[in-house]
Write the structure tokens for this entry.
Amino acid sequence: MTLAIFGGKPVRDTFLSYGKQYIDEEDIRHVVNILKSDYLTTGPSIKAFEDKVASYVDARYAVAVSNGTAALHTALYGCEVKEGDEVIVTPMTFAASSNAIMYLGAKPVFADIDPITYNIDPKDIERKITDRTTAIVTVDFAGLPADLEKILSLKEKYKLKVVEDAAHALGSEYKGKKVGSYADATTFSFHPVKPITTGEGGMITTNNLAIYQRMLSFRTHGITRERSQFCNRDEGPWYYEQQALGYNYRMTDIQAALGLSQMDKIDAFITKRRKVAQLYDEAFRELEGVITPYESQDTKSAYHIYVIRLDVNKIKTARREIYEALIAENIGVNVHYIPVYYHPYYRELGYQKGLCPYAEQVYETMLTLPLYPSMSDKDIDDVIKAVYKVIQYYLVSK
Ligand SMILES: *Cc1c(COP(=O)(O)O)cnc(C)c1O
């Protein structure tokens, strides 16, 4: 069969995107009910959504915010990260994980990844700790929880805070327990491609009351209405205080209503995502030239994305041509992620190529395949067929 990139017939006629939300009539009903109610924002749906997520991940407190990036900013503020601090972070992530450190005037210090799991390597974290280091931002890459046990032991040893960026990992498990209460603060994103969606949205969970209170105030301008916490004299029932510089990072009740309804489906979403991942694993295990994702006995990934790596010794072309050939077959592949410090903004700050060799090496050969809950059997089959068609064409041994 001629590859579509050379004018052959594509594996499918319509384009299959790499990720997509799942919205049903229940979701629509929940949102419409809010539109007809008294509260579009700061109403009862916010607390209900926070409670539902907190209870799902078994954390004491949760704070809903406007997006996953705001969640990271709020979490780091909650952990008292401040100007001049160094915060260790993985480069194998969306830029937001590092940008949030910059927002607070702190310095991102990139630690390399483990080339098997693609998660931050605790050994490299330890090498990069200095007396200015105050926190670590870990990312559960693709949904696979980071090496939390080792990271938490570094936290104890060096008296650091840990923020877990679980934008990919709502429902992921580490040692039999969902992520959400291992770190000082765990952040989630509800962007449409993430495990559940609210359009835009985010949340932070924590077991620490002080961090929770700092985050609540940060979400709304640094204002508190908690009378016991006032600095000045309580001037009356109308009185509130702005005690710090916060932001307007509030979520609307419209979003929270969608989130509440999506939470009813989270387990079904994860089951489907894991099923698709398993079908890919089985299909590609025998395919020369392709390296499938890692999963250990200790973890259960929510599979936000399915990332393969191309075995460069077995394939006679660069990732770019494989990428373009799969797009031509109408398979929406993607690349997660460009190492954060490759971006011109970070280059200008002085970060240079060579900083994290494994992240750079892995980046060269990664490819994200389509994965989302509403994929049909035919969609899954088309991805498998197209990967076989393209990879086998380019095999050295062929
Ligand atoms: C999506 C994502 C974010 C940002 O979330 P938004 O809701 O888009 O702001 C942060 N970190 C990671 C790893 C992400 O994938």
Observations:
- The pocket of pyridoxal-5'-phosphate is lined by residues 67-69, 93-94, 96-97, 139, 165, 167-168, 189, 191, 202 (CB under 6 Å).
- The radius of gyration is 22 Å.
